[in-house]
Design brief:
This protein is α+β, with helices and mostly antiparallel strands. The chain is 23% helix and 42% strand. The chain contains four helices and eleven strands, in the order αβαβαβββββαββββ. The N and C termini lie far apart (40 Å). The N terminus is likely disordered.
Amino acid sequence: MVMKSIFVVILSFFVASQALAGQRFEAKAWKTVQEFDLPALSKDLATHVRQLVSVRFQFRGKDIHHLKPNWYESSIWSPDPTKSGKFVNVRVMISKKDLPAFKSITTDSTSTAPLVGYGKALRDSEANFLFVQLMGLKATLDSAGDATVDW
């Protein structure tokens, strides 16, 4: 009985630490990450479904919607280089635990500081829309080539 309790405590600690830690990718998966400017990704998102992507953008959308129990929907934006004064966007989904970090991203469309977001291009099969599951803005590589993505 004592051994079972110790196991449950250790397992709970492990699960909690993984929930607080950033998303981890093995070197094999991380080597497939493609980097995009937002305008290019927005035109071609459907061809990258289920792939890891790195996307450069300028600001986030002001609207954040609570679509599913642990997921929020919003968007990331950049100026459209082909149309003066216009913008392009990509829909993003953010986990509940990452929402405070996402909210810290500027909503100022005049921001000139480019940001890089890391995530996975996906399709919501129920609502049939494309999005990037945004996992963070910082990627760190260890000596084995594995990456951790965090805010």
